[in-house]
Amino acid sequence: MKIHTLLFASFAIALSCTNTTKDKVIVTPTSLTSKVVFDDVGIGKAEHILFQANKLVVTKNLPEELILVYDLASSSRTTMGQYGDGPGEIRNPWSLQKSKEPDQVWVASIGQKMLSKFNIASGDRLAEEQIKLKGEATVIMEPLALNDSLLIGSSLDGKSIFTVFNREGEIIERLGDWSEKTEFGEYPAHVVSALYEGRLRTNGNQVLYSCIALDRFMLLDLVKMEMEEFQGPFHIQPEFGTVPDRGVSVFAPSPDTKFGFIDSFLSDDYVYLLYSGLSPKEITQTGKMANDLLVYDLKGNLVHHFLLDVSLKAFSIDENTNTIYGLTSYVNDDAKVVQFEF
């Protein structure tokens, strides 16, 4: 059963939240060897990748090439996205999300506070549909479309873990409370939310929240309205403090703090998490970002640990062929699209 509008009509029951620490399960890492699929990503920082309808969609920060679409059958390469603020135009595309239609994808543009839907089969550079975040929804990060009328995201204001809102920017419901998370000390909710900052993904029935500065992730069940938090195997201890900013204490990470899950993918049955374990300084010095891909079931059990022979900054999954597609972490703008079979 897919989520629908009536699910959020009344919210008569409160969101149930639990923290789950699984017994340590030893999973022997499996080494995977990469194969270069496309080496013409070109200049401009490639940010995210998505497998959809036997195509690979890549977002970049280059006005002339904002969105690349690679057809795996023909090996052709199409450029989409018209730079600007006009109708159908986009600037600085960021995260990617599948649409319910196989030939369409949602692209989030953080700077514009907007979601844009592109038809990757048509080759049209302009978006077919755009949703502009308005009102209270302008503080939403990583917005995801749940259906034709509702969206969900995480809030910069720290008022809730998840925020459900409509296309008019009206807040429908706030889910989860950051103030309950006191493991790393007593801090204001907006500081805790910054510590837990993460990526959001959805499969229609669940929403995955994977933390960037911690090896932790949360799963929100949209049908049962239950949320569970799971601890990863590396147990990152974040190094951070607070600094005053216009009379307010704000989150201040140490340059030595390690990155946790820098990218994620949620299928109907599994959670895939790309783990870094490196500090910003180490990433700058080595050019590497992440070589560990962890796979969990939806109950939080670790089932696979893949060691990748090249470092990635983003990835996507084709479960029908057991293939991982990744963007290599770039040095001097030499990002490539690679694949691993598992």
Automatic annotation (TrEMBL):
Instruction: State the superkingdom.
Output: Bacteria
Q: Which Pfam families match?
A: TolB_like (PF15869)
Name by which UniProt lists this protein: TolB-like 6-blade propeller-like
Q: Which organism is it from?
A: Roseivirga pacifica
